[in-house]
Amino acid sequence: MAASTRSALGQPNAERPDGEYAFVAGLYVAALAAPALVLAVSRVVTDAAVLYIGLLVAVTGVTGVAGLVVSRTPGLAVILGRHDAVWLLVVLPFGWFGGVFGGAALGVEPPDIAAPLAVLGTAGGMLLGITLVAMSRTRHANAALEDVVKLVEWEARWPRRWRRIAGGVSIVAFTASTLGILAAFVFDSEWGWRLYYLLFVGVVLMNVLNPRTFRVTDAGLVVEHPLQRQFRPWSAYTSYELSDEALVIRSAVWWRPSHRCDRADISDVDAVRAALNEMPLEGR
What is the DSSP string of 31-73? Predict the structure, then answer.
């Protein structure tokens, strides 16, 4: 069982990360570091089989060491989930893409193995980063919601117009990434690998089509996706607007998107309006 203490502010944020979280965090570090280790070894070893085995050993070793460090760092998951900067975990892996392909564009000739390692580091790191963000936010929400009072709950998708835009862009992204993969393997096109990254744009936008569960509590707003639970206090929002088409809960900062719900999906609009009117928001 994970050891748990409380911070000076009384928040249950000093719980050590559980084994599942530590394993994913270790894999994330390995996705970033292991390709670099293999790339360094490739300067003296050229045998592909040896490099492949070296990659497996590097991933295993880095995952184990990093996972152990994470598991012994109290409060790490909750602290990361509390801050928007946690999204840097998704951005950092693109350093592989920028480093290898950017260097090639500047005339620096990388080893042949650099391109697949860059794809592994970027794609693997980004997917694991997204997973780690979701896990961090869920653990922060669980800690913050221990003693709160739930007032109302509803499930809703994004408004219809937003769903149409996201669906159209997703189709274009999936089509372009598929053509890119075919071009990379059939015609050995470098641009094919670059189009491949549009696949992740499509995956992210497809999330707009999924319904979300909202919970108004006395402490803040809970937004639950299929694989993630997120909590923010009411100080993170400024107001709400209820129209014939949508409910919009506006964020207090410009870089954080507002929550938009299709009004037709809300089963009890009056209860939602009444609960939000009790919060420090300006309904209009």
Answer: HHHHHHHHHHHTTT---HHHHHHHHHHHHHHHHHHHHHHHHTS
Q: How far from the centroid of its chain's Cα atoms is residue 91's Cα?
A: 10
The pTM for the full model equals: 0.80
pLDDT digits (tens, 9 = 90+) for 23-54: 999 999 999 999 999 988 888 888 888 888 99
Q: Which amino acid is at 92?
A: L
Instruction: Give the Cα separation of 221 and 145 in Å (integer).
Output: 10
Residues 160-172 have pLDDT tens digits of 888 888 778 888 8
Tell me if 266 sits within 8 A of 247, measured CB to CB.
yes
The backbone torsions φ and ψ at residue 267, rounded to the nearest 5 degrees and listed phi first, read: -75, -35
Structural domains of the chain, ranges and CATH numbers in brackets:
19-144 (no CATH), 150-283 (2.30.29.30)
Are 224 and 230 contacting, i.e. CB atoms less than 8 angstroms apart?
A: yes
Strand spans (E) along 146-219: 150-156, 212-217
Residue whose tokens read 């569960």: 213
Alpha carbon distance 44, 33 (integer Å) = 18
Q: Which amino acid is at 121?
A: G
